[in-house]
# Entry
Amino acid sequence: EGPNSIEELQHFFDNAPLQGAWICALQRSPRQSQCVGIALRMDTGLWSNDPILQFDALDNESGAINRASDPFDYDSDDDGLLEKHKFERRPLYVELRTAGGRRFRVAGLHLKSKGIFTALEWSKWWRQADANRRRLLAQCRRFRDIFLEPYLSDPATRDLPLAVCGDINDG
# Structure
């Protein structure tokens, strides 16, 4: 998770007391002050000259990553009624290319359960904590069903390594 613009993220890597030359990518998420990003150290000889191909999760042309992170309905509390869910921060999805010509993809997720700051009574805290976990589970299932399972079965991607990583806030 990082700032809300690629310029801010690149500025951090260009001006922080870090060694090396860095290149960044960032997935925009409307109305969010922080977005999911990635940074590669370029002076190691490990990466190609143009190492990051980004699939914008906000773009309909990006396929499954867009559909997986769109708002969705899901019965997260098993009561037979569909609840509205969304990804507060769209996933980052990139293909990385090494100097040796190898390719792999990374899906960076930031699943947010919302902090519990107002529930002073223990029973209300537990009720909110359970609701947060159901929200996380709904997001994970959505990502699995719409993005991950098709990725693993599609002949175009099933042999292309994929790392799924991120930040799961369980508040």
